[in-house]
Write a structure and sequence with these properties.
The complex is a heterodimer. By secondary structure, chain A is of the alpha+beta class. Chain A is about 20% helix and about 30% strand. Chain A starts with about 35 loop residues before the first helix and ends with a strand. The longest helix of chain B has 9 residues, at about 35-45. The chains are: A alpha+beta, B mainly beta. The interface of A and B includes residues 103, 104, 106, 173 and 175 of A. The complex binds zinc ion (ZN). Zinc ion binds near residues 8, 60 and 63 of chain B.
Chain lengths: ~220, ~100
């Protein structure tokens, strides 16, 4: 029987799982490494309306599974220490781990990079049935925008309604962002996180510099 | 610009986040080898182009990346109904 017809029957033991973290002595470069954000933050201590920080080199795991699979839901809660948010467009956070709802059967788990391998193996051991966990850490990065004008920069960049009445703290939405895409999360009263693709990181970085120029952009490390 | 309700994200979003994927409810022939060229050709290439109600598949490309069905009036662009894949429309041309 093909796996298309009976995906739930396919054993997951053939999946190759590897620790994607580079070993000691290997320089890890975030998607915005070339921008030299640390250097910019050091020579750029002035005030401005928009603060930008790359939450770089974190572990990103894409989780997919059915909410009807109790083993999946329980296994995730057990291994992650947090239940998957089932309400659309919500997120949960505890300690260094955050989980963003992406669709009814997809979530993004962000956690410290050195925990990603262990957590991935833990999930594979704990969950039975049809599910998927993929380490996508190298494929994307997170930019944090904060400050009094962060919201104004978002309004220039996305079609989302980011008014506080429509976008409470903790809300998550995948959307178009500056003709690219981003997973937007309001992480605090005046702070926002954008999960962006590695290949678009430079473009978004250039876009954000331009969009925040009139308010003053401060790079934080 | 259409304002489209995604049944998975459960809120209205801008059209820019979506892609239209054409006519909905096209059943693939169960046994393609048993089709005549005419039947197979009609399945592959021929689509309705009604003036009025049209059932379409849409894709929330930039959002949840899920497909869903949408019934739209092609004259007024008014969206009459949104329903999930696997479901049948309530609003149809014969129901007026
Ligand atoms: Zn959606």
């Amino acid at each position: 029987m093909s796996e298309t017809l009976a995906p739930e029957k396919v054993a997951t033991e053939n999946v190759a799982v590897m620790n994607q973290l580079a070993g000691r002595g290997v320089r890890a470069e975030s998607p915005l490494y070339h921008a030299g954000l640390d250097k910019l933050s050091a020579l750029n201590p002035r005030a401005g309306g928009v603060l930008l920080r790359e939450l770089k080199l974190l572990g990103h795991l894409t989780l997919r599974g059915s909410q009807k699979n109790a083993s999946f839901m329980n296994g995730c809660a057990e291994v992650l220490g947090l239940a998957l948010p089932t309400l659309p467009l919500t997120s949960v956070e505890k300690g260094g781990v955050s989980i963003r709802w992406i669709s009814p059967d997809e979530w993004l788990v962000v956690l410290p990079a050195d925990q990603a391998y262990e957590v991935e193996r833990g999930l594979r051991a704990a969950i039975e049935g049809h599910f998927s966990v993929v380490n996508v850490s190298g494929g994307q990065t997170i930019l944090e925008l904060s400050g009094p004008n962060a919201c104004d920069v978002l309004k220039k960049s996305t079609v989302l309604d980011v008014h506080p009445s429509q976008f409470p703290v903790g809300k998550v939405a995948g959307t178009v962002f500056a003709k690219s895409t981003a997973l937007v999360r309001r992480s605090g009263e005046a702070s926002w996180e954008l999960v962006i693709r590695r290949s678009f990181a430079d473009y978004v970085w250039l876009w954000l510099q331009d969009a925040s120029r009139e308010y003053g952009l401060v790079i934080k490390s | 610009m259409l304002h489209i309700y995604c049944p998975h994200c459960r809120e209205l979003r801008e059209e820019e986040e979506f892609h239209a994927k054409g006519q909905a409810h096209i059943a693939r022939p169960l046994d393609p080898d048993a089709c005549t060229d005419k039947e197979w050709g009609e399945y592959l290439f021929f689509r309705k182009n009604p003036r009025g109600l049209h059932h379409e598949i849409w894709y929330h490309t930039a959002g949840c990346r899920k497909f869903f069905n949408l019934t739209r009036d092609t004259q007024t662009y008014e969206i009459k109904e949104i329903y999930k894949i696997g479901e049948q429309p309530e609003v149809t041309a014969d129901k007026g």
